[in-house]
Amino acid sequence: MLQLKSLLLLNSFFFTNHCITDVLLSPPDITNPTEAVTLYKGELDFVVKCEATGIPKPTFQWKRNNQDIPPSSYITYDANTGDLTFKGFSEREEGEYRCYASNVLEQTTAVSVSQPVTIKKYRFLRPDSNLATEPVSIKQYDYVKLFCKKDKLEVVAESINYNWYSKSNDMLSLDDGRLYIDQNGDLHINYAKTTDASDPFGSKCGLSGRSSANIVFGDAYNLYVTPVTQIPGQAPVLKWFSANVVAEMSHSARLECVFSGYDPMQPLPTITWTLDDGSIISTNQKYNVSSNGRSLIIYKLLEQDERNYYCKAKNNFGESNPHQVFLNVTSKPIFYENKAPRDVTVSQNKDVTIPCEARSASGETPPSPALWYVNGRQTGQHTNRNKIDVKANSLTIKSIKKPDDIMCVVCIVSNSVGETMGEACVNVILPIDLTQPVNANQEIALGDFIELTVLAKTDISQQLNYKWTHFRNKNDLVGEEPKFTFYDPVTKMAYINTFGMSESEFESVGGDYVVNISHLYDYRIERIHVTLQDKPAPDDMSGQSNLVPRILYFLTTILTLFFSL
Ligand SMILES: *[C@@H]1O[C@H](CO)[C@@H](O)[C@H](O)[C@H]1NC(C)=O
Ligand SMILES: *[C@@H]1O[C@H](CO)[C@@H](O)[C@H](O)[C@H]1NC(C)=O
Ligand SMILES: *[C@@H]1O[C@H](CO)[C@@H](O)[C@H](O)[C@H]1NC(C)=O
């Protein structure tokens, strides 16, 4: 009778379990773009994609410079696909674009915001095509620097190649390094030759981007070189170096030193680069000393690369003093480890704290306090303070509920270099609840058995795992896997059957049986204390006769479970 009752009870729990209307939900999660990018667009018509996952399927909106995009024939976006389409793209549409992916839940809408996509018109233009020409007179063997006269040019590109050209637009040969073009495009002639002044030289700097077909020219020079009768010999003298080089972490930096000094035996001086401790820098994975030593490229910048570098030059006439070149390694705010907002999945009723703690590169002004956005809207007067607690370095959502508190939170921190954005989309799932009360204290006699089954339910998105541990006594800290007579991983049915056990085996059955019911994001511990009945059951056939109906009971229960599932 008792068995039948518990059977029905168990069944009814399964029945209610099936009736709970739990829905699968997840906040929008933008999978593209995931990093801040700048696009230089040469074409007129193109599409920028925004992709997001989420349940239900998100819809999309794009904003430009944080403003809604007014309808026009130049920019449109598709709320269903996320495609942002440009037609006849020009400077007019340049700006910082962000995609907003929205998931409509019951009463609320969760909104995820993408990293910025900055779009610029790729261009190499010289609006006025009349080149001015400036005369420059020098002596043979002298050093001269010609500036790349870029003022009249309009150039917007991810990278610019500088070359120098003759009057008839032929690219000048750098003559084995006698000529050197620095990172600003300026031309250094280490020692002039009379042939540099070919009738007239008319030399000019030319800028090009992805394709050398599209070159724009700066204003030109006419170079006049006066021949000398005596070949000079001079020790190296620093003529120019790259001052104030500021480069971002993980990027590369180029430091440069240009020395004059003509030696007939060795026309170009030997340049060496050293560190503070005097150690010589040579080309390897980290450094590249090139262009006859005039250029030192440092790859994958780290904060400790911010330091002094020294260049010096030598020939048979003498050696220059070491010249100090400082490299400033800087960065947008950098999140401290584990202090960036991250997507989280949390069981209902818990509090969730989203961190946002960042620093600047070492020695630089700390970032501004974080600006917080909840579902795409900046926090402020309207923010419900009972639900959301905003601090400088964190935001806490209190007693989170499904589905209303499924949301995305953005923080933005900025410094003099730029801004860094982090986003945490918070998914709320139903907690792990027991489907029937647990009988936490049970007694057992030798030859008898007891049921330990603990059944729980949780969010529809999660699969529960049951892990049992048996602690024999209070001092037992480690516990062991319990030796159940029967445990079914499918139905989660668990019980102890002591039939046929020796008395000493039976002695070890008592203690705490602990089950850890867990899924990816949460767990729940249930404890059942089993005490042994003082007097063991008499060693006769009664134990056996008892067993048969009990086994039958379990078989029927399992069958019922299978039918109800
Ligand atoms: C060093 O830099 C020069 C100029 O940028 C480049 O051509 C060369 O391949 C680089 N060498 C190495 C070893 O990286
Ligand atoms: C490096 O550059 C940053 C950004 O321009 C500036 O704030 C900082 O003061 C510079 N550091 C040094 C040591 O010059
Ligand atoms: C329960 O199991 C989960 C998942 O394996 C684990 O993270 C958690 O620490 C366990 N809890 C205890 C108290 O053992």
From TrEMBL:
Extract the SMART domains matched here: IG (SM00409), IGc2 (SM00408)
Q: Which UniProt keywords apply?
A: Disulfide bond, Immunoglobulin domain, Repeat, Signal
Question: Domain Ig-like spans what residues?
Answer: 28-118, 236-330, 333-427
Give the signal peptide, or none: 1-19
Gene Ontology CC: neuron projection
Q: What protein is this chain from?
A: Neuroglian-like
